[in-house]
Amino acid sequence: MDAKDICHEKQRITYVDAVKGFAIIFIVIQHAITNNPDIWQINQIYLLRFITQMAMPAFFFVNGFLYSRKYAERPVWGILRKIKAYYIPFVGYNFFFLICNNLFVKLYLQNDVYGDGWYGAADYIKHAIAILTGHREHMGGAMWFLRSILVISVIFIVADSAAVRIKEGKYRHCTLGFVTLMIVTVAGAGLLPGGLSNFRLEGIFFFYMGFLAKEYDWNSKLQKGRMVWLLLCAAICLSGSLLFAIGVARTTFVEEVLYLVLGCAGIAFLFLCAQTSLVEKFPVIAKIGSYSLEIMCLHFLAFKVVSIIMIILLNLPLARLPEYPVIMYIGGGWWLLYTAVGIWLPCIYASILTKCRSKIKTLAK
Q1: How many domains are contained in the chain?
Q2: Cβ burial 64-81 (10 Å sphere, 16+ → b, else e)
């Protein structure tokens, strides 16, 4: 999610953007098919189990893959960069949803059940403080990732800053591996304090794997036996979705370990898919990946367009518009439309925003 933070637009790694593209599409699908409060009753349960094995793990991995040693050498600068990349968008988009809360209530986009209802002056102050300390507004549900990756990145930078100074970095990878193992063990065992348990710090495992993948050039090794690895990883992911529900719900330490293992297979699968000739020839997936931040932050709001269409065409009561993330209990292919709109509307917004920024920079020069 952070390629913009690492490289200039002209220096983007196309296949990494494609990995993010696949991952964000899967996340939007995951929310688009959730049309039953009881997750086990949705029609596409195996699709859900398949994509959740790899979607969020891929984003943690990519951020580790794009991690640079310069962050450890200049930790204060590195942490400030991460605050700019994650915290500022988190606060900005959540403040947008906060400001629009009462408008959304008036427009039936949310209510007391799906959201926090009408805000008074005191509510606005309370929620503003909550946002600054890491809490999300109703429409910003998917932005938990920004909060999580910020904390993980800061931990990694601080640990790496110490590791590179121990005997000139001789034990750097081992030190970082030990820190990662400790955090994953504590988080996986449910031993984190209440507040930190919501940060999903076990994602540092995938961050560390991404870091190692870049350090040891694992991607080029995968490419040497591309088709074999692609089929093997696909088989592992399919088997995982049929045999386990660990991508959806994890209640034991064993399930957490399975999630980490299957997540690695899923990440490898996405990296291999991202470098196929078809994906490279048609860069739409990579372009979607370059707008993954905007899609993550705005797809729940974009979903409301489809909900309005459904209400009109199916003659549903307007009172159903606030249902979240989609209108409940209605099957069929509506999830495909939710997915398409949830991706393309934020992409259009991001494209316009990018062009405006470019023009402003040009005028400033």
Answers
A1: 1
A2: bbbbeeebbeebeebbeb
